[in-house]
Each structure stands twice: as C-alpha cells, then as structure tokens.
Amino acid sequence: MFMTNREFFNRFLKIMLLILFLFDWRAAASAETLQELMQKGDESFQQQKYKEAIVFYEKAVEINPDFAPAYDALGDAHFFSGHKIDQVLWFYQTALQIDPHMAEAYSDMCRAYVQNSQFKPAESSCLKALAIDPNQVGAKFNLGWVYLGTRDAQKSIQCFTEVSQVLKIPLVYYGLGQAYATGGQNAMALEMITKLRDMGSSDWAIKLEQTIDILLKQQEERKAMAEEAANSKNGAAAHPNATSPTSVAGQPSQAQSQATNSSTPGSIGQMQIRLKGKLYPLEEQ
Q1: CATH code for the domain of 69
Q2: What is the CA 46 to chain-centroid distance, rounded?
Q3: 75 found inside a domain
Q4: Is residue 126 in a domain?
Q5: pLDDT level of residue 14 (50, 70, 90 thresholds)
Q6: Which of 15, 144, 249, 250 is 20 to 30 A from 97 via CA?
C-alpha cells in the first residue's frame, strides 16, 4: 500500500523529532556525567588521592575534549603527584589554549614555575592572572612566593599582606614571616611566629623560626663576604704593583676555565599538540 505525500511527510517528521529528542537527551546526560566526574575528581583531590583524581578528570576530558577546567584540574593533580614540570605545564597551557581568560590556570602555572625556581615566567603568569582578575587571591599568594625567590622583600610583603586580609591560614603568615625576615624586619617576622602560635599552629611557628634562623645566617654570610671583598679591593688599591697568580704564572688560573660553547643546541623536547579526545602521553614515573 502506497503512502500519500502527506503520510510520508508526517512519518518523516516523527522520525526527525525522535532523533532530535535522543540527541538532546544524550547531550544532557553527557553534561551531567561531566559534572559528576569533575565532582568525584575534586573529592579525590581533596583527600590527596591524586592518581584516583586523575582518572576522573581524564574521563571528563574524554566526554568533552574542550573543557578547560578539566585540563587545569589535571595539571593540579599531576603537580601534587610530583610529576615533571613540563608534563604539568602542558595541562595548564592546554587549558589556556581553550580558554585564554582562565585566570586560575595562569595562577596554577605560576605555582608550578615557582616550584621549579623559574621565577621570571612565574611572575609573568601570575601578572597575567591578575590582569584578568585583580581579585584572584591564589595569584597574589603565588606572586608572594615569586618575590621571595627573587629577594624582593617589599613586594612579597605587600602580596602576603593583601592575601592575609582574605585568607587567614598558617601558610600565608608563614610566607609573610619569611618576607619580613628577608627584608630585615626581624621584629615583624617574630610577630608572625607569635601569630602562628596564637592560631594554634605550633608546627608552622617552629618551621618559621627555623627558616628565619637560616635566613639570618645567610644574611651574615653575605655581609661577611661583602666586607671581605671590600677589604680585598682596598688592599689591591694600596699595592698597585702586586701581581695576581695569573700574571705570575703567565697562564690562566684554574678559576678561569675555558668556555665550551656548542654550536648546536640540545633538544628540549618535541612540540606537543592537543588532539581531540587525546591526552598528553605521560612518561612512567
């Protein structure tokens, strides 16, 4: 029996509506699953079960390869798992490729650079985060550690002080105490030790005391070296005809070692490209 044009059209319309309904239902189910996976990953992360968190975050990426928060979360999980810096940075960079305005990813990247004592790119990453979101507390906190690393005590004090107005946690006062000690403000550094004890954080107070002792010894050593260098310079000026070991021997001293420059720079690793549904292949730890 042949269908009329009207019957054919009605059946075709029903089929198309059914397909659209199934598509919308699957999309909604995927979105819900994505949220559940991220939540489970976050719960595992908070419990310091980083390998378990990585599994959940990777499944989230399989559902949506363009979901920037999942890549950022993967970077955090790999960072706290102690994985290599280039592997960690790849996840943050991928998150920023997807969402260039993700301040949190820049802040997390800053933290990774600080951990690797790469203070220049760390500062750049944190400043980018703050340019996007001036109230990004994590970026200000990480920037405090950047300036501690570069021995810019005043900037470090400013960052930690601003963060302490929002986050009243031991680690902030620990960093602030170090910044004061680095800047020679020992009384303020001792005040941070008292602050930590009043908070019931005796462990952090003891750790800060030990750190300040180390900083003070380093300051004394640098001062002694500077005085020694100044005395040596004054002695050389008083005896201009005195000869150095180099001029006596007629040959460069052992301290003046020859520079060996290679014309061909070593490889720093091949370029990594994010593919749909694919994650950066991590090396076995």
Answers
A1: 1.25.40.10
A2: 18
A3: yes
A4: no
A5: low
A6: 144
Distance in angstroms (rounded) separating the CA atoms of residues 280 and 26 = 27
Q: Position of tokens 């292949």? A: 281
Region of 112 on the Ramachandran plot (φ > 0 left; ψ -120 to 50 alpha; else beta): alpha
How many domains does the chain divide into?
A: 1
Range of the domain at 35: 28-100
Task: Give me the residue label for tokens 């950047």.
Answer: 146
Amino acid letter, residue 229: A
Local structure of residue 118 (DSSP, 8 states): -
What's residue 187's pLDDT?
A: 93
Task: Answer yes or no: is 235 within a domain.
Answer: no
DSSP class of residue 117 equals T
Residue 95 in contact with residue 76, Cβ under 8 Å? no
* Burial (Cβ within 10 Å: 0-12, 13-18, ≥19) of residue 61: buried
Confidence label for 226 from pLDDT (cuts 50, 70 and 90): confident
| DSSP per residue, 203-239 | HHHHHHHHHHHHHHHHHHHHHHHHHHHHHHHHHHHH-
User: 81 vs 36, 48, 52, 78, 84, CA distance in Å?
Assistant: 22, 9, 11, 5, 9
Dihedral sign from CA coordinates of 163, 165, 169, 170: positive
> In b/e form, how buried is each residue of 130-149, taking b as 16+ CB within 10 angstroms?
bebbeebebbbbbbbbbbbb
Least confident of 94-108, 138-152, 175-189, 254-268: 254-268
Q: What is the pLDDT of residues 147-162, one digit of tens each?
A: 999 999 999 999 999 9
Residue 133 within a domain: no
Token pair 């397909």 is found at: 19
